Amino acid sequence: MTNLKFPKQFMWGGATAANQLEGAYHEDGKGLSIADVLPQGKDRFAIVNQPDFDWTIDESKYRYPNHLGIDHYHHFKEDIKLFSEMGFKCYRFSIAWSRIFPEGDEQQPNQAGLAFYDALIAECLKYDIEPIVTISHYEMPLHLVTKYGGWKNKALITFYKRFAETVLTRYFKQVKYWMTFNEINSAFSFPVMSQGLVASNGADDKHNIFQAWHNQFVASAWAVKMGHELDPQLQIGCMLLYATTYSYDANPVNQLATLQQNQAFNFFCGDVQVRGEYPAYTDAMMDEYGVKFQDLEFSAAELALLKHYPVDYIGFSYYMSAVIETTQEHHAEVGGNLLSGLKNPFLKASEWGWQIDPIGLRIALNQLYDRYRKPLFIVENGLGAIDRPDEKGEVQDDYRIDYLRQHIEQMGAAIHDGVDLMGYTPWGCIDLVSASSGQMSKRYGFIYVDLDDDGEGTLARSKKKSFDWYRRVIASNGADLA
User: Fold this and answer.
1) Extended strands (E) in 118-234
2) What is the predicted pLDDT for the residue at 291?
3) FRET partner for 211 with CA separation of 20 to 30 A, picked from 8, 11, 82, 364?
């Protein structure tokens, strides 16, 4: 793989999310989002899934790092200038729904919120950085959960349409690439962030999960319709959490379980959004969870909308692979991106237990492209690690460089395989608050932010060793990975 080439127009960049870096959670009219009430710590999902969880902020018991983020709201010009120094061709970010519609159900948007994104997008374009916008990235307005019950309520389709129409209409001339929902399939395991569902409002009933998905599929199709009516050249994609999944062994029972896991987790949401219809295995899959498709609230008009307005490309995150085994009981488990699984004896793992599998990315790219034959975009990938500045205050993150180098090599191999890959935006291109744990110490960035898990620090930005390495990768269009 020494002579692999990337397409001339390949989009190199980085990715973030509003709720993890902006901060300013109560400034300029912004309302509370679900991310604003998630406490810090590895048990944050267990806490919000307690039966008595009521979506309130209790600062006497917990820290809420999203409230400050890395204060990107006041530092975005400095941050985007640093992205430009790395040579970013594109920058993936999200628009905080509750900054535009603080409660989510208003008729008119918050102009101060729009003004912030006016300035942010203008700053990107100033440096010839292509903005790539995720419309909803784990930050729905809290009011839509506490009053309406989250995405299981069809009323949210109307509210999302209003939000999407507002931002699409305002920015379609400046922003060509959009994604409708971040990691939409993550609700399979953790519906709190993408659907606003926890135990106290119905997350334990899979009927609610599938109803919420259907409502999101319809909302996504509306966004595609609106975007294409504004400009047929707009590219509006879905975004999936993808974990290449292996059977533990050749036992047919485990092979079947792996097939079914792939259908339920990796493919179901993509099948609907890309192919425009529910897959043949829908009834059998739902039956496993005691749900009947005909019991969902849907209409023929909604199914027709899904069919006529599939997405234009598939964005996805890839951090790790998974192993499926159903015939034994005592295999070691490991952590992962919102889900855990069995330990793969052939792989090493990160400090957080996420198994590092670059070849799994090549497999993922081939699986997705073979299935859908639509352009792919790796919009999240990276290594969360504890970065310790040396005596000079510099971070020598060779471990991150090694991780990214191996994954980029496999991207090039997949392109050689025939995969149509649009671009690559490593996650957390600047250090930000972790979604899975709410920590700052779990760092992904090329840029170090002086802030600790207790919210202490100067917020000063500094370049890690990986900063110059990634700059060379981009400048050489992936040829220089040394």
Assistant:
1) 130-136, 177-181
2) 98
3) 364
Question: In 3D, which of 419, 424, 414 has the Cα closest to residue 374?
Answer: 419
- The first and second tokens of residue 245, run together, are 């999944």
76: nearest Cα among 475, 459, 451, 394: 459
Amino acid 11 reads M
Could you give the CA distance from residue 153 to residue 202 in angstroms, rounded to a whole number? 11
Other C-beta atoms closer than 10 Å to the C-beta of 388 total: 10
Q: Which two tokens stand for residue 173?
A: 């001339």
Spatial distance between the Cα atoms of 240 and 315, rounded to a whole number of angstroms: 6
Please state, as a whole number, how many other Cβ atoms lie within 10 Å of the Cβ of residue 76: 19
The predicted-structure confidence for 462-478, as pLDDT tens digits, reads as follows 999 999 999 999 999 99
What is the rounded CA–CA span in Å between residue 379 and residue 397? 21
Contact between residue 187 and residue 124 where contact means Cβ atoms under 8 Å apart:
no
Kindly report the backbone phi and psi dihedral angles of residue 115, in degrees, each rounded to the nearest multiple of 5, phi listed first: -60, -35
> For residue 293, how many C-alpha atoms fall within 13 Å in the half-sphere facing its CB?
13
Q: Write the pLDDT tens digit of every residue in 279-327.
A: 999 999 999 999 999 999 999 999 999 999 999 999 999 999 999 998 8
Q: Rounded distance, CA 13 to CA 230, Å?
A: 26
Nearest 10 degrees: Cα torsion 125, 127, 128, 130:
-60
Q: Which residues are catalytic?
A: 183, 380
Q: Tell me which DSSP letter residue 101 carries.
A: S
Element (H or E) spanning 94, and its range? strand 90-94
Residues 6+ apart with CB under 8 A from 250: none
Are the C-beta atoms of residues 50 and 93 closer than 8 Å to each other? no
Q: Report how far residue 300's alpha carbon sits from residue 303's, in angstroms, rounded to the nearest whole number.
A: 5
Tokens of 230: 């504004």
Q: What's the per-residue H, E or C state across 384-395? A: CECCCCCCCCCC
- β-pairing, 321-324 vs 333-334, is unpaired
Smallest CA-to-CA distance from 425 within 165, 237, 272 is with: 237
Q: How far apart are CA 321 and CA 357, in angstroms?
A: 6
Among residues 341, 447, 334, 457, the alpha carbon closest in space to that of 400 is found at: 447
Give the residue from 70, 88, 74 showing the smallest Cα distance to 125. Answer: 88
Distance CA(348)–CA(295), nearest Å, equals 44
Give, in order, the Cα–Cα distances in Å from 204 to each of 208, 253, 300. Answer: 8, 27, 28
Of residues 334, 321, 322, the one with CA closest to residue 360? 321
According to the model, what pLDDT value does residue 336 have? Answer: 54
Cβ–Cβ < 8 Å for 184, 221: no
Evaluate the CA torsion angle 339, 343, 347, 349 in order and state its sign: positive
Inform me whether the pLDDT recorded for 423 exceeds 70.
yes
Q: In Å, how far are 32, 114, 239, 268, 325 from 186, measured between CA atoms?
A: 22, 28, 10, 11, 21
